[in-house]
Amino acid sequence: MLKTYLSISILLAGIVSMHPVMAAGTAAAAKETQVLQRIRVQGTDREMGMGIAEFPPNAEKPRHKAIGPEIVYVLEGEITVLVDGMPAKVVHAGESYQLAAKDIHVTKSGPAGAKTIASWVTVPGRQFNVFVPK
């Protein structure tokens, strides 16, 4: 009976100690962007959108590209923008960055998380962000 309790205790201790290691290898996911407004761009087949995105601490939006240009203003925290072929860029609260259409990138928040507001141009009815595998 004592052997059973010791075995279970050792097993549980191993599982508990491995959990932080496994969690450290995976970043938390950023929340979906909350779309605030969309308007048609007169004389074109495009629309502009505006939305807010919230990132928990150390969260990321996986590698993706947008089908149109985007400008992002960081309201709180900081964001690291990793565009393929470019050096990483850290953007702090009160600063902004822009992305050209089809820039393949990953966005990550810092240890305090982040909150951004963005505007973009897209084709109505089409998915704006497209996941891009490595």
From TrEMBL:
Name the UniProt record assigns to this protein: Cupin 2, conserved barrel
InterPro entries xref list: Cupin_2, RmlC-like_jellyroll, RmlC_Cupin_sf
Keyword entries, A-Z: Signal
Taxonomy of the source species: Bacteria, Pseudomonadati, Pseudomonadota, Betaproteobacteria, Burkholderiales
Species this chain originates from: Collimonas fungivorans (strain Ter331)
Pfam families linked to this entry: Cupin_2
Signal peptide extent: 1-23
PANTHER family named among the record's database cross-references: CUPIN DOMAIN PROTEIN (AFU_ORTHOLOGUE AFUA_3G13620) (PTHR38599)
Domain Cupin type-2: 52-105
Keyword Acetylation in record: no
